[in-house]
Design goal:
Two copies of one chain form a homodimer. Chain A is mainly β. Chain A has one helix and eight strands, in the order E-H-E-E-E-E-E-E-E. At the A-B interface, strand 1, strand 2, strand 4, strand 6 and strand 7 of A face strand 1, strand 2, strand 4, strand 6 and strand 7 of B.
């Protein structure tokens, strides 16, 4: 039987920005925490929506036509197929939910592509 | 394009306990906030896990063999097929994630069964 997860405690285990740590599963979805600081990479997920919930701090989800500014307690779902680029001026902590196997950098790839790691 | 959601603001729209309000979707999953106070009903979801994240306050997810005590920032996924009964001594606010069409009372039914309502 799986245990409860304290998200702040899990964030403390993370190393570096934009390297998500999986803290649980919901059916075939992975539940991950991530530290975000600086700019990520523009990318698209053609096969899935992309869930963000800010746990602490502030972040921006840049879309091509506007910016979505999020603070703690605010959630945004990037629709599938919509190009986006997360950014944070200062470290923020975020809960991510995506289907297992979803690559964090989507179609962009590159050096910020992170493996699926349980923490 | 969908907009961001401030979860605390959405909670203020809710009427009564254990009546979830849908605030968004992630693919074929519904994202809902709910106020919990008092005891819900023992029930099982045979076809899906059941995601709880406490946003404020405290709650207990009673399982047949133990209680899972959750406070703000803590998450628990009830595995599919595991009987459970949420309870809160004082009002708490919770984010729920389940596949669309999942009935809040699972196999139990009864008067606490709530319709799927967007808020």
């Amino acid at each position: 039987m799986r245990e409860k997860v304290n998200l702040a405690e899990k964030v403390r285990v993370l190393q570096g920005s934009y390297a998500p740590g999986i803290v649980g599963y919901l059916n075939d979805y992975k539940l991950a925490v991530v530290k975000v600081e600086g700019e990520f990479v523009w990318h698209t997920h053609d096969d899935t929506d992309d869930f963000f919930l800010v746990l602490s701090g502030r972040m921006t989800i840049q879309l091509r036509d506007r910016n979505v500014e999020l603070e703690a307690g605010e959630m945004f779902v990037v629709p599938r197929g919509v190009e986006h680029c997360p950014r944070a001026d200062e470290e923020a902590h975020v809960l991510l939910i995506e289907p297992k196997g979803t690559v964090n950098t989507g179609d962009a790839g590159g050096k910020l592509t992170a493996p699926e790691v349980e923490i």
